[in-house]
Amino acid sequence: RKEVEQDPGPFNVPEGATVAFNCTYSNSASQSFFWYRQDCRKEPKLLMSVYSSGNEDGRFTAQLNRASQYISLLIRDSKLSDSATYLCVVNMAEYGNKLVFGAGTILRVKS
Amino acid sequence: DTAVSQTPKYLVTQMGNDKSIKCEQNLGHDTMYWYKQDSKKFLKIMFSYNNKELIINETVPNRFSPKSPDKAHLNLHINSLELGDSAVYFCASSLHHGLGEQYFGPGTRLTVT
Lengths: 111, 113
Fold this sequence. Notes:
By secondary structure, chain A is mostly beta strands. Chain A is built from no helices and 11 strands.
């Protein structure tokens, strides 16, 4: 089983749609979680951290379910500029605090 | 004012050559990293340095040797390049080791022919 698994997509959605991405992780001891965004041929950039209680940043909501080892990202009112690859990231504290990246989910928002 | 910069941006070279990639951060961070993103887009950590000290050294061939002259710089030297080394190499930094908020450089696209 991969350490971090994501549905690769692509998710093709119209502008204004709500879209959700899921991610599962294998190591139950993992403590911190993040979503990064990577535009085509660019570097990854932190989108948001994921907290146990769930957190929201504008149109973006991240949730964590430790029991199911599952992280989600919800994007409301999709914009064309949201088109990118979304990377689920888990901090493996027991392995020297290295970040393990999922392969990413591709989102394409169309007008 | 680029926070994390890498040079060169593109590198095309032949098998067997030796090449270096340089990275600099002006954020005052303690920790720097090298990541490799292959053709399948998996981003994997290779090395991390905290205040010039090697912390993480993943299972990377010893043809890859990182060097950190000071905490603002982390260079990557690759000996005897192979076709499988073709990838995008990203440098990153974080305020302290292990933080999830990492700042990435623009990447170096290495093509080995």
